[in-house]
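ABC transporter permease
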Amino acid sequence: MSSITTTTTPATTRFGIGRTIRLGVRRIPFELRQYFRAGDQVFFTFLFPTLMYVVFATIFTGDIGEGPDQVSMATYYLPGLIAGGILLSGVQAPALEIAAEKSDGTLKRLGGTPISPVTYFIGKIGEVFVTAILQIALLIAVAVFVYGVELPTDLTLWVRFAWIFVLGLIACTLLGIALSSVPRSGKSSAAVVIPVVLLIQFVSGVYIAFSMLPEWLQNAAGVLPVKWIAQGMRSVFLPDSFRAAETSGSWEIGLIALMLVVWLVVGLVLSRLTFRWIRRDR
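Predicted structure tokens:
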């Protein structure tokens, strides 16, 4: 009973905001150690985008585009795989981790301590940011040094890359925390989470051009955050003439920012409403 009472106490009555944040930051190294100790997770989440990029860049060769705006297929696939990496790091990794921790009793034990869900969320988001930065850095390094991809030289484009990366990753992480409440056990979490993530990648323009999808599927998938992350990344790494291939004929930078902010708010609300130290049906 005492643990249940503790979990319903507002965070601010247990610790002040400053200490709540400090405790969350201190959890980040612990979360990172747990992440890299799981070999299967490192392979299927951390290395998967790079491995898929190598497959696509090796199989599909040649150039795409016209005139001086031609780019290699390796360049063309890079933005989509970056978006896919953000999805994997932000949604799949925390969803699987939290479902497993809920199943093995880790969250129940944490719920009996004075820390709040905010502290726990900070630790998870910090872990996701570190692993995602390393993951995307590895992906870009392979693109540059193995396939000769030329990176943007305009600082404005890198600023755009940064805010799309940050907004997209936070939104995906919060959605991943919310998704962790769906599996009924740690054993079933992979069967629930991974198909959802794979489906989202295919309908969001990660592996195939979004404009190639049927119109009804474009309309359905057009609201998903990964679609907007991928579109934003294409605006960074591809020549400006490629915007004509987008469904609207433009990059829609303002709309990308708006959609990612909306999904960040949606993820924050869903994660806070659905997160429990233990399942309610137990």
